[in-house]
Amino acid sequence: MTPQQFTMDLMPPPSLSRDDFVLGACNALAADWIDRWPDWPGRIKGVVLYGPADCGKSHLAAIWQNQSQAMVMSHLDDQSIDALVDQQAVIWDHPKPNDDWPEDLVFHWLNRLTEINGSLLVLSRLPMPQLNWQLADVASRLNGLSSAAITDPDDAMLASLLHKHADDMGLALDADVTRYIVSRMERQFSVARQIITQLNDLAMASKKPVTLPMVREVFEQQLPLLGRDQNE
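The chain above was modelled as a monomer; its predicted structure follows.
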């Protein structure tokens, strides 16, 4: 099993440095766990970061990977335990009870990690207890890991995220445009990214900067998906 580099599917590639991570109340605990490494507690030195799509788990994982030279695993197989001979820091990319994560291998892998005093960062949409691991020994180990939820962003975080995605794409947003978007968009990480992607496409097609009429066009086309309930 060979190391992978954490990337995201946005083009051009976003900055995944620590300085460019957008910090807020919704993700402060998760970021703190990354900063605390290698001082992670527990018999298994592991931390679970869980939250919705595009919430920054991959960015935090990239920061930790840069610090620890961690290997990324998207599944476990017969070679996974042998990989720990030379690799003591590992990222599990959204494990769940299925054929890609056989629970007998999960059990033996975690035991081996403990023996070598390795470190494990787990990325997940859900907390480990909600994944319903069937083997009691696996469930107790994973459910007992330290964890941090990344919760829904507030308006200040949304504004910062919009500018982060825009900066990654070389797109300029003025204050009026940002306020308009934040006041109308759904409070979801993935929506912030989607709005900026659509605005970037429109700006590139028209060869014009982002304007309020352009933003209104995006919302009119995608309102059920992007819009916030104005009665909240």
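The chain has two domains: 28-149, 155-226.
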